[in-house]
C-alpha cells in the first residue's frame, strides 16, 4: 500500500486500512472513490455529513455512485459513523 504524505491531507490510501480486499478485484475501494472525484478523506467525510451521518445512506451511495463492493461500503460507512460521532461530540 502506498504511504501517505502530509501534503496530501488525509489521503484515501487510509481508506485501504478500513477494508480488507479478498483479491477478487484489481480495483480497490480507494481507486473507485478517486474515480468518483472523492480523492481525500475530508471529501469522503463531507459526503457522509451531508447525508445526515446515516450509515445506511452512505453505504448505499458508495455502492451506487462509486461502485464500491457492498462489504467494503459497509466497513467504510461503519468507520465513518465512528469518526463522525467523535467529531460531533466535541
UniProtKB/TrEMBL annotation:
> Its Gene Ontology molecular function terms?
DNA binding
Organism in which the protein naturally occurs = Guillardia theta (strain CCMP2712)
Instruction: Note the SUPFAM superfamilies from the entry.
Output: Barrier-to-autointegration factor, BAF (SSF47798)
Q: What is this protein called?
A: Uncharacterized protein
Q: Which InterPro entries match?
A: BAF_prot, BAF_sf
Amino acid at each position: 500500500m502506498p504511504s501517505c504524505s502530509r501534503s496530501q491531507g488525509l489521503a484515501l490510501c487510509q481508506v485501504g486500512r478500513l477494508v480488507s480486499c479478498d483479491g477478487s478485484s484489481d480495483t480497490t475501494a480507494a481507486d473507485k472513490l478517486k474515480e468518483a472525484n472523492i480523492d481525500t478523506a475530508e471529501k469522503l467525510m463531507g459526503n457522509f455529513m451531508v447525508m445526515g451521518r446515516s450509515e445506511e445512506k452512505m453505504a448505499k451511495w458508495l455502492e451506487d455512485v462509486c461502485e464500491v463492493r457492498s462489504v467494503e461500503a459497509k466497513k467504510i460507512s461503519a468507520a465513518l459513523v465512528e469518526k463522525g460521532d467523535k467529531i460531533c461530540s466535541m
